[in-house]
Amino acid sequence: MSVELPTLHQELIEVGTIIEAYGIRGALKVRPFATDPVALLAAKEIWIKSAPGSLVLSVKDYQVYLSKFHSGSVILELVGLTDRDQALAMKSARIAMARKHFPTPGEDEFYWTDLLGAQVENQAGEPFGQVVEMMDNGAQSVLSVVNDVKKQRLIPFVKAFIIEVNLSDPMAKKITVDWQSDW
User: Which in 7, 49, 95, 173 has the greatest CB count within 10 A?
Assistant: First the structure.
């Protein structure tokens, strides 16, 4: 498949990491980055990116033959990957997908990757900074918001605090929160 890599890399979203081989026929055991790996389970095509710190950067696409959820991990069987040794060689590599292949989220549901880079302000219009990271503390998702002077705020991403999420313009994403500037 011939794809322009600069364009491709801008569209790829990492959705998991390969933690080990599964079985003897080349299946991969993947730790998904999302608590609900619906996008990964629905994937028909994935990209495998070389492991972080690898001396050789490689990105290769694979067709997904079978995917299933098993004990907190996703098991992937890929077309052309038929041997346990091939699967073991991919340990620690990252799994990525084109954003356009993600299932459409429901109302008031968002993919974390879409929230990154959004400007955050409270109802009074006071700017808090930009979403630089999303995390899960076990009870809920949390926005990590950093301003120009590197001050970080952790804001729970729950209805009680999130007033509005506007992602309609990718260059002007904005989240309005019910949060005081001195919290």
Answer: 95
